[in-house]
Design brief:
Strand content: 25-35%
Number of helices: 6
Strand order of the largest sheet: 1-7-8-4-3-5
Order of helices and strands: EEHEEHHEEHEEHH
Structural class: alpha+beta
Shape: globular
Number of strands: 8
Radius of gyration: 16 Å
CATH class: Alpha Beta
Largest sheet: 6 strands, antiparallel
CATH topology: Chemotaxis protein chec
């Protein structure tokens, strides 16, 4: 289970150290992909297999299914850790998430999200400001 929020610096080659608390669960590598809200998703290989099986089961006759499959699968990349626990985030993924110098790693149970620091602060501020409304809506769903 991934939980917590951590800040790490990207070097000029696009390498960044994953938080030490996350590394044991990821084993010898992970899958990084475009996420939603212009962040990146990091999955264990096992979680990625489960997600891709669900995506493969969607009807390719529906445009939303094709679009989601393209977003998630075409942009995914397998990453390995170097001796310092760093991964190289491909340039196209760094551009997608507008990653600059500081990256925020947010643990979200079965995945990790990587955000540009400024984007994360903005998103978090908006979400925290509307937390009462969000809780009310989720309460209506029985959560």
């Amino acid at each position: 289970m991934f939980i917590g929020e951590y800040t790490h610096s990207l070097d000029n080659k696009g390498r960044v150290a994953l938080p030490a608390k996350f590394r044991p669960q990821l084993g010898d590598g992970a899958i990084i992909a475009r996420g939603l809200d212009h962040c990146l998703f990091v999955f264990t290989k096992e979680s990625w297999e489960k997600l891709t099986a669900k995506i493969a089961g969607m009807s390719f006759m529906k445009s939303d299914s094709r679009a989601f499959a393209r977003l998630m699968l075409a942009g995914a990349s397998e990453v390995e850790f170097d001796n310092q626990g760093r991964i190289l985030i491909p340039e196209y993924l760094r551009n997608y998430a507008s990653l600059k110098k500081q990256a925020i790693f947010a643990g979200l149970y079965d995945r990790i999200e990587i955000w540009d620091e400024a984007s994360w602060k903005s998103y978090k501020s908006k979400t925290e400001a509307s937390s009462d409304d969000i809780a009310e809506k989720l309460g209506e769903l029985g959560i």
